[in-house]
Design brief:
By secondary structure, this protein is α/β, with parallel strands linked by helices. It has a single domain, classed as Glucose-6-phosphate isomerase like protein, domain 1 (Rossmann fold, 3-Layer(aba) Sandwich). The chain is built from ten helices and seven strands. The chain has a five-stranded parallel β-sheet, with helices on both faces. It has a two-stranded antiparallel sheet with strand order 6-7. It holds the Pfam family SIS_2.
């Protein structure tokens, strides 16, 4: 808890400008009838799902999902896959992406081939690219086959203040191993902080924020069905 709290405090103190820029880009996209797409490989794919169809979440948010980049079929294979060149651009083909849209890519190291290629492909399509990376980690590892790092390709970079290797807590007096990975918690905080700010700004502009209501709350079924009908054509996961 102490390590997570310290990391979140670092984010709050140092990333305000980047968080503000991300919220501005997403508000502009939504006002232009655009979408926010979310992408990550390995455990970072959890953050793409974090923003998808949940209570308090925003409806114009769509995850980019591919089973091969996730962990449930083969974790070992997914690790190889995310480091394989020539795949990233193809992952976007399933989605009706336009230059009105924003993509947020989560990659702790910021160097694996697939997230970098997704960023390159997104830029070619005119999307605004937001990267969430651990800057200290990315600085310690070489670029992948493309020669690029994710942060170099993003219009907006948010540092999750993760440590190299992600695990926050040294174990034992020898400190040979570390545990307590932090990037999922910090990534979820960053994402939801931005989306909360987006909702507040839309409301302040006189626009009703397209927020899902928990299915167990009164009136949720009709309200959520309307949002699904509105965004289903741009989100194949609804």
């Amino acid at each position: 808890m102490a390590a997570i709290q310290a990391t979140l405090q670092q984010i709050a103190e140092s990333q305000a400008a980047a968080l503000d820029a991300a919220a501005t880009a997403i508000v502009d996209a939504f006002r232009a009838d655009g979408m926010l797409y979310l992408f990550g490989t390995g455990h970072s794919h959890l953050l793409a799902e974090e923003g998808h169809y949940r209570a308090g979440g925003l409806a114009p948010v769509c995850p980019i999902l591919s089973s091969a980049t996730m962990l449930h079929e083969s974790a070992v294979t997914s690790t190889r896959f995310e480091r394989t060149s020539g795949i990233g651009a193809a992952l976007l083909e399933r989605y009706p992406i336009s230059n009105r849209d924003v993509i947020m890519i989560f990659s702790n190291s910021g160097v694996n081939a697939v997230p970098v290629e997704v960023a390159l492909a997104a830029r070619e399509r005119g999307m605004t690219v937001i990267a969430v990376v651990a800057a200290a980690y990315a600085a310690r590892v070489p670029a992948g086959p493309s020669g690029h790092k994710l942060a170099d390709l993003a219009h907006i970079v948010i540092d999750n203040h993760g440590v190299p290797g992600d695990a926050l807590v040294p174990i034992g007096t020898a400190r040979r191993f570390r545990t307590g990975p932090g990037s999922t918690i910090t990534g979820a905080f960053i994402l939801n902080a931005i989306l909360t700010e987006v909702a507040w700004r839309l409301d302040a502009m006189g626009m009703e924020p397209p927020v899902y209501i928990s299915a167990n709350m009164p009136g949720a079924a009709e309200h959520n069905a309307g949002l699904v009908a509105r965004f289903r054509s741009r989100n194949p996961h609804l």
